Structure formats: C-alpha cells, structure tokens
Amino acid sequence: MSSTPPHGTGRAPTRAWVLHPDITSERRPREAALALEEAVSLAAALPDLDVAGDTIVRLARAHPGMLFGSGKIDELKALFEAHEVDLVLVDGPVTPVQQRNLEKAWGVKLLDRTGLILEIFSDRAATREGVLQVDMAALSYQRTRLVRAWTHLERQRGGLGFVGGPGETQIEADRRAIDDQLVRLRRQLDKVVKTRDLHRKARAKVPYPIVALVGYTNAGKSTLFNRLTGAEVMAKDMLFATLDPTMRAVQLPGGPEVILSDTVGFISDLPTELVAAFRATLEEVRAADLICHVRDISHPETEEQAADVDAILASLGVDDTRPRLEIWNKLDRLDPEARAAAIARADRDPDVRLVSALTGDGIAPLIAAIDAALAADMTEEQLHLTFDQGRARAWLFDQGIVQSEIQTEDGFDLTVRWTPRQAARFATL
Q1: Where are the transmembrane segments (predicted)?
Q2: What's the pLDDT band for 325 if we cut at 50, 70, 90?
Q3: Environment class of 8 (CB within 10 Å of its CB; exposed 0-12, middle 13-18, buried 19+)
C-alpha cells in the first residue's frame, strides 16, 4: 500500500501488522495461509492503513491472559519495533484482558477481527441508516472493551477512530455515556427505519418480483449488478466494497420487470453485533422472491465460503423453501482445465449458472434462468369481477397477467396467471 497520506486526512497512514493465530487445538475448516490472505485483504480495505507485513502464529492453544506465549510475544515485539508498527491486527477474537496485556507488552494499538470489520463497515457506510447501524454495533462491541475513548461519536470522517487519530486512548469508556449514546442512536435509527418501511410499502404496491443478490464478500455481486442493470454501483476488487443495499428495476428480455437488489457481502466469523445491526438492511433478502447466491468459483475456498453464506442466511430466518439460483462467477479467472470441470459440474445442476460478470460471458442464459425461476413460482387462478370493479380489472390487464376473459350477466370471469406478490397486491385493490 502507498505511504502517501490518504486524501483529506492530513496524516500518514498507520503502519499495521496482521497476525493470524493458527490454534491447532481448534477445528478450523480453512487453511491458515488463505485465512491470513483474507485478513490482509480486510486490512487493505481501509485507506488509512499501510500493511507492513503479516505472520501466521501457530499455537497449541490460546493463553487466557496473553493469547500467545511469552517467548512468542518477545519475538513479535522485536519484529514490530524493527518495522515501526503502530497497530497489530489479530485475525480472530481477542478478549479485553488479552488486548490490554498485549498492547502493554508491545507498546502498540491492537484490533481484533471484529473491531477491524466494524471499522471497515463504518468507513464504507453511505446511507444514514448504515452509519447509525454501524455506530450502534461498534458501541455494543466496545462496551466490553476496557480501555478506549469515544472520539468517533463526534467523528468528522468515515471510520470509527480505532485505527488512528488523536485521543483514541486518552480515557476509559464511560459505560453510562455509551448506554445514553446507544439510546439516542436507537431513537434516530427508529425514525430512519420507519422512513425506509414506507419506501418498502410503496415498492410493495409495485408488484414486481424482487431478486436479491447475496454472496461472500468480493464474490462479484456489484459487478454482476452493474452488468444486469447498467447502474454504476461501486464495484472494486476489495472486501466489503458494497455496504448499503442498492435496488434497480430491470426488464428481463422477453420476461417480467424485476427489482434487483445488491446487498452487503457476507464473511466467515461475521461479528454478531453486525448481523443484528444489519438485520433490517438484510430484510430485502428475506422479502425476495428469488435469491441469487453469487459465488467466486475461482476462489480455492469457494465451498467453505458458500457454507458461510448459507449459515448466515439461515440465521437471518431465510428458509430453504425460498427459490434460489447459484451463480458461479469469475469464470474468466479459471484455467482451461478448471473451466471445463466447472462447466461439467454446472451442467449436472439445473439451479447453477456459470458467468463472468466482468466479460459478460453467460449473462444471457442467467437472465433466462432468472425468468424461468420466477415463472415457476406463478400460479393460475379463476377470478370473478363485478361491473363496478373496473379499477381492479384494469389493473389486471395492465399487469399483463390475464390469460382469458368471459363477460357474464353480472361481470367478468377471468383466468389470470400471477406471482404471489401480484396476488397479494390484488387483494388490497
């Protein structure tokens, strides 16, 4: 990363070192090297950080008071001093006691995985709701920390102030002040959520199916969203490029108009504070008619990432009966042999589509699959309307769902083919 001061901050970036504790007594499904690579990518997502280096620290078990053994602590201290490190990022949970002891032993600031993800979310949040949710999540997390200050509550920039800035260690947290601040933030968030609920209800009156893109962070959801909608959502090769939900109407070729929703990327060990804080934002997924799970099929741990996404969806209350498509993205990154193997696997599964959102390869079959999946959810029903229900009859024809109509003595008998969303909308007319 560049050592040039980030634009607008007026100070040099914080020199950071990433540690991944590889605890052999714990069952970890992922390779330590890949876990470290992801942690470094997390750190690189913050513009205020200059990652000076990274290390895998193998441990038989975690030491309760210091996490690491005394010999390893001394060894790492020398390493940090030699590289003039200001901040140590530990890829895993660190208790408040461990954090205090390690900061004292090394003479640097320390941030665990949860704190780092919170910092990234705060730096990325763009909407008022997103900012409030991150602030509440950060306060809930930091309430358990023993020594922190709260300059970020009146911050002038994105980010929570964990990484740098004046005064972040000058006072201990006043829990009563934190609780008061949480109450104020919750009141503000309630107002924002009510406004968004009104927007959601307004969208519900437009009975287009909602298609939600979900997936592991950096799987290419925003690039695919842009490819399908022609929008210009931030789509970079970095973790958590998108944090606030974006929705656009898309006319499927030869099919219905749908609302496409781009959502925040998931990640393994997602902080529980953030799952709770973003539950409202992710309600777009829970309300979706079709969930498209976007996977980076070129990633060596694509199966593990998919399992993490499924677990988080389940924790959000998204049931298995909801129609789903798997979109295997980044086909362009596969070598010929891996590409042939992926195509063979996808051909055996009707719910899988292979694409490259970057090049556009496979997009047309994907759109056809989305259309077919939504059509499969449609039902045919018989309706009888009286002559005074002209508004409802006009609405049915406007939706293009009337299959046939016969005029009777007291009105009209119609055959309609519609989605559950359209049926629910019709019931309110």
Answers
A1: none
A2: very high
A3: exposed
Q: Does the annotation list 332 as a binding residue?
A: yes
215 known ligand binder: yes
Whole-number CA gyration radius for the chain: 25
77 annotated as ligand-binding: no
Q: Do domains 14-113 and 206-376 have the same CATH topology?
A: yes
Task: Tell me: is residue 216 an annotated ligand-binding position.
Answer: yes
First to last CA, the chain: 58
- Predicted TM-score of the model (pTM): 0.70
Question: What pairs with residue 22 in β-bridges?
Answer: 58
222 is known to lie in a ligand binding site = yes
| 261 known ligand binder | no
Dihedral (Cα; 402, 407, 408, 409), 10-degree rounding: 140
CATH number of this structure's domain 206-376, picked from the four choices 3.40.50.12780, 3.40.50.300, 3.40.30.10, 3.40.710.10:
3.40.50.300
* pLDDT of res. 253: 62
- Which amino acid is located at 112 in the chain? D
Residue with structure tokens 């393994």?
268
Q: Is 242 annotated as a binding residue?
A: yes
**226 annotated ligand-binding residue:** no
Domain 14-113 class? alpha beta
> Residue 213 in 3-state DSSP?
strand
414 is in an annotated binding site: no
Tokens matching residue 294: 């976007």
CB 7 within 8 A of CB 42: no
Residue 404 is assigned to a ligand binding site? no
Locate 204 and state its tokens.
């519900």
Q: Which two tokens stand for residue 110?
A: 């320390």
Q: Is 219 annotated as a binding residue?
A: yes
| Percent of the chain with pLDDT strictly greater than 70 | 78
Cβ proximity of 222 and 262 under 8 Å: yes
366 is in an annotated binding site: no
pLDDT value, residue 244: 53
Parse the chain into domains and list their residue ranges.
Answer: 14-113, 120-196, 206-376, 379-427
